[in-house]
Amino acid sequence: QSALTQPASVSGSPGQSITISCTGTSSDVGSYNLVSWYQQHPGKAPKLMIYEGSKRPSGVSNRFSGSKSGNTASLTISGLQAEDEADYYCCSYAGSSTSDNYVFGTGTKVTVL
Amino acid sequence: QVQLQESGPGLVKPSQTLSLTCTVSGGSISSGSYYWSWIRQPAGKGLEWIGRIYTSGSTNYNPSLKSRVTISVDTSKNQFSLKLSSVTAADTAVYYCARTVGFGEFFDYWGQGTLVTVSS
């Protein structure tokens, strides 16, 4: 199972909106509405930002939103803030009838200009 | 508030077995529809799911690591553990334990991570 493909970096100015793509295959992203997104600041553990494609955990800003079309999931950050500067990873369930598996994305570094 | 904490040796020799334990606090490891996963991250690289366990003892492993991985659980201690055999330098990484929500298939609580270096 190959890693999901994300752009290496995305940047934006404060207040702008950015979108991070996450491209998989019909065996993972395309088969399930089970994509999650994680924010990771340097030296810290990942933090859940979006689950089941578009749901936000309690406490996560509504500036973060998720969507999916075909084999590609997306994370949009609106009203970009300095604190949003971090690495972001998507993850998809990639199970089959014989095994369970999860595949992460390659990661995207978000820079706030 | 659930908290997870990894523990174990920070240095392992090549060809030996890496052993880590994750202690769960703030809730019972046996409650709810949760799995308990191990995930790792080499320095400067992305995340890789290693495997998960349910409190019944049922396990699932990443096919790429399956031959070398064993995950076990001790409900009496509210802990679960990872063993990775025949390690090489490529296994050097920060290892995280995480609570996995079943059906939704996402990781909602993570430990702070522990660096394991494979070196002689």
Largest sheet of chain B: 7 strands, mixed
What fraction, in percent, of the residue positions of chain A are helical? under 10%
Counting helices, strands and paired strands, the structural category of chain A is mainly beta
pLDDT averaged over residues of chain B? 96
Structure annotation, total helices of chain B: 0
Give your account of this protein's structure.
Chain A is elongated. Chain A is mainly beta. In chain A, the strands form two sheets. In chain A, strands 1, 3, 4, 7, 8 and 9 form a six-stranded mixed sheet that branches. In chain A, a hairpin with an 8-residue loop joins strand 7 and strand 8 (102-104). Chain A has strands at 9-12, 18-23, 35-40, 47-50, 64-69, 72-77, 86-93, 102-104, 108-112. Chain A is built from no helices and nine strands. With 120 residues, chain B is mainly beta. Helix content of chain B is 0%, strand content 52%. Chain B has strands spanning 3-7, 11-12, 18-25, 34-41, 48-53, 59-61, 69-74, 79-84, 93-101, 106-110, 114-118. In chain B, the strands form two sheets. In chain B, strands 2, 4, 5, 6, 9, 10 and 11 form a seven-stranded mixed sheet that branches. Chain B has a four-stranded antiparallel sheet with strand order 1-3-8-7, with no helix packed on it. In chain B, strand 5 and strand 6 (59-61) form a beta hairpin. Chain B is globular, with a radius of gyration of 13 Å. The N and C termini of chain B lie far apart (39 Å). The interface between A and B is medium-sized, with 26 and 21 residues.
